[in-house]
Amino acid sequence: EDQVTQSPEALRLQEGESSSLNCSYTVSGLRGLFWYRQDPGKGPEFLFTLYSAGEEKEKERLKATLTKKESFLHITAPKPEDSATYLCAVQGRSWGKLQFGAGTQVVVTP
Amino acid sequence: GAGVSQSPSNKVTEKGKDVELRCDPISGHTALYWYRQSLGQGLEFLIYFQGNSAPDKSGLPSDRFSAERTGGSVSTLTIQRTQQEDSAVYLCASSRGQGSSGNTIYFGEGSWLTVV
């Protein structure tokens, strides 16, 4: 069974204080690893898909990396608007079933 | 539309009543997904449609839940004889299809269901 564990559960950062979120996974036949951002009362907003170990993707202050066992989401010099819950999910043998982690709630204070 | 559209955005229903939740996927997307997010819980897979293939219903929690997709586009999730434990956000998502080029999965804003 596919499993995803995200850590930490919550993260409080000062504006400009860079940090990393972890997503550890076990999956049979990884098709893709997804990162989403979710604001309160909203649906998940797509950030990145990573397909193979060693791959990296960047978007503004966010950078996602992938190894065979985990993925990291690096937040560089965060701003208060980066406050959200960040969700990690893996897509294994079944195209339709994303297995989501519980998320990391990030709060960035001015 | 530009994104995945869901309706209603909020629904309060009495225990035992039936509810229907609607999803309009992004135009041209052949894959459609339903997920459920309960308070404080992670996203839980419900059902997956891909083109004309038989849907993957393996995530539906009971026979009170069903979903259909008409004309390869709009989908309706139906919950019969609602129970309080059905209270959750029901999220619909769509993607262009299978394969790495179609693997970006976009979510709607969700339908918030409260069973009283």
Features:
heterodimer; A: 110 residues; mainly beta; Immunoglobulin-like; six-stranded mixed beta sheet; five-stranded antiparallel beta sheet; 11 strands; B: 116 residues; four-stranded antiparallel beta sheet
Explain what you see:
The complex is a heterodimer of chains A (110) and B (116). Chain A has 110 residues and is mainly β. Chain A has no helices and 11 strands. In chain A, 0% of the residues lie in helices and 57% in strands. The model of chain A has no long low-confidence stretch (mean pLDDT 95). Chain A has one domain (17-95): Sandwich (Immunoglobulin-like), CATH 2.60.40. In chain A, a hairpin with a 3-residue loop joins strand 7 and strand 8 (70-75). Chain A starts with a strand and ends with a strand. Helices cover 0% and strands 46% of the residues of chain B. The model of chain B has no long low-confidence stretch (mean pLDDT 92). In chain B, the strands form 2 sheets. In chain B, strands 2, 4, 5, 8, 9 and 10 form a 6-stranded mixed β-sheet that branches. Chain B has a 4-stranded antiparallel β-sheet with strand order 1-3-7-6, with no helix packed on it. Chain B has a single domain (5-100), classed as Immunoglobulins (Immunoglobulin-like), CATH 2.60.40.10. Chain B is built from no helices and 10 strands. With 116 residues, chain B is mainly beta. In chain B, a hairpin with a 5-residue loop joins strand 4 (31-37) and strand 5. Chains A and B meet through strand 4, strand 5, strand 9 and strand 10 of A and strand 4, strand 5 and strand 9 of B.
